Every structure is written in structure tokens, then in C-alpha cells.
């Protein structure tokens, strides 16, 4: 679960304070925690990366 400005319009008001609390890190992620991966993948630094799954999920994985 990631926190965005749209969350208050998509979730019930009483659920907002606990958004992401069920994740192992105990909180929702933030967009600034995802952005570095996009920058990395768009850069030449990732030119030799193929077929990888990168989980930015606060430790929560549902396979």
C-alpha cells in the first residue's frame, strides 16, 4: 500500500490513519520511496539488468 493524495477519496475516513499498518514495516509507503527505482531503471546504470522483479513493498509479499 502506498500513500498518495488520492487515498482520502478512495478509502473510508476511519481507515486512513491505519493505511498500510498491516505491512511488516507498519506503515504505507510514499511515492518518494518508489521514485529511485524508476530513475534507476530509466538510467544507463540498469543497462545490464534483465528480467528482475524488484519488490518495493515494505516487506509484504503476496505471491
What structural keywords apply?
single chain; 63 residues; mainly alpha; 2 helices; 0% strand
Structure in words:
There is one protein chain. This protein is mainly α. The protein has a domain of 27 residues. 25% of the residues lie in helices and 0% in strands. It is elongated.
Write a concise synopsis of the structure shown.
The protein is an all-alpha fold and 63 residues long.
**Distance between termini?**
15 Å
Unreliable spans: none
Radius of gyration: 14 Å
Major sheet size, sense and barrel closure: none
Helix-strand layout with pairing:
Elements: H1 7-10, H2 31-42
Amino acid at each position: 500500500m502506498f500513500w498518495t493524495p488520492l487515498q482520502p477519496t478512495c478509502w473510508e475516513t476511519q481507515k486512513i490513519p491505519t493505511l498500510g499498518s498491516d505491512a511488516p514495516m507498519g506503515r504505507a509507503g510514499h511515492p518518494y520511496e518508489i521514485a529511485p527505482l524508476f530513475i534507476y531503471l530509466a538510467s544507463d546504470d540498469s543497462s545490464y539488468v534483465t528480467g528482475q522483479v524488484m519488490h518495493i513493498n515494505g516487506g509484504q509479499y503476496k505471491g
